[in-house]
């Protein structure tokens, strides 16, 4: 993918050999590794509204 032109692959292009700059993707742009692991039509999916937040969610550590 990195050896291709940007028109041919999402990782393509750049001057010389460059890093991909994004997560591994297929030539069409879909995620190539670690894709979705949850079934889209799972019955319990309607019950999941938002993620659980910890007590100290969003607090930055100041030194």
Structure explained in plain terms:
By secondary structure, the protein is largely without helices or strands. The chain has a domain at 1-33: Ribosomal protein L2, domain 3. Helix content is 0%, strand content 0%. The protein has no helices and no strands. The model has no long low-confidence stretch (mean pLDDT 78).
Throw out a few tags for this protein.
63 residues; Ribosomal protein L2, domain 3; flat
Strand content: under 5%
What class do helices, strands and sheet pairing give?
A: little secondary structure
Count of helix runs: 0
What is the CATH topology of the domain at 1-33?
Ribosomal protein L2, domain 3
Named CATH architecture of the domain at 1-33: Irregular
Radius of gyration: 19 Å
- What is the CATH class name of the domain at 1-33? Few Secondary Structures
Within CATH, the superfamily of the domain at 1-33 carries the name: Ribosomal protein L2, domain 3
Q: Report how far the terminal alpha carbons are from each other.
A: 43 Å
Q: How does the overall form come out from the CA principal axes?
A: flat
The count of DSSP E runs of length 2 or more, i.e. the number of strands, is 0
């Amino acid at each position: 993918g990195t050896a291709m032109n940007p028109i041919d692959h999402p990782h393509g292009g750049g001057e010389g050999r460059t890093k991909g700059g994004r997560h591994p993707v297929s030539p069409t742009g879909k995620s190539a590794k670690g894709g979705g692991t949850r079934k889209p039509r799972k019955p319990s999916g309607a019950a999941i509204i938002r993620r659980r937040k910890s007590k100290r969610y969003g607090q930055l550590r100041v030194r």
